[in-house]
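task queued by scheduler; priority normal; single chain, no ligands, no partner chains; default sampling; output format set to structure tokens
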Amino acid sequence: MAVLALMMLAVGPRIAISTQDNPPLQVYDYHIGPKDLLEITVFELKELNQTVRVAEDGSITLTLLGRVEVSGLTTQELEKKLAVMLDQQYTKGAHVTVFIKEYQKVSVIGAVSRPGMYELVGPTTLLQVIAQAGGLTPQAMNELYVYRQGPDGQQVRISVKLDDLMANGSRIELLPKDVVAVPVDQPVSVYIYGQVRTPGAVTYLSSKKITLLQAIAQAGGTTEWARKSRIVIKRKDKKTGREMQIPINLKKIISNKIADIVLEEGDVIIVP
């Protein structure tokens, strides 16, 4: 499973991302954005100690200082900016700290009970956000994705297997503007005709796969007249579109002499 490493420093969150498909990205600081809730403390001027939410235009309004542009700055950069403004107008050597109390929102889409936007109130894990979205639906595929914009502006996709979600989902912290996508598992079909008890379409979920033995079992099994050694799978070649015929000896599969065959969507099985 792709692993997401996050380091939350007191002066502001710093992030390092690595995946099996991508080399680790450079560690970078979180940049303040609209709707973030900031807690600002100035030790020399208690009048400036306040909690403010960043406006849509990326600014905050502070007592004594008025309107201050903050969007795109890290907490360290904002601390320095406020200290300089205070040096120029009020007091020298001011000690300023900025703490982000609430982050922006993330999106959760796909096979969850309540898709939508969810606010990050402090550090929030993937597992917590999925729980807020009502959990996964039965239609969820066996893998979900977290889409994130990296420091270089390129989008990064982090893959998480559902089997690993309970074990590792609580360690994966989300960032503002992340998109959690849970693909919906689509029902697909293969078709069985001939000497089975319930011929016709056999439907299954695309991520689960289905083998010849499983499909025949879902069709009620073969009849007593079935020629199990002469089964044929008709399949379209994906490159040429031509029909292939694959002969299968079901007796050898049952006796473990040959491996069971994984079927593909649209396969037609003929049991003579």
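post-processing summary
- The longest helix spans residues 75-89.
- The helical segments are 75-89, 126-132, 162-168, 212-218, 250-254.
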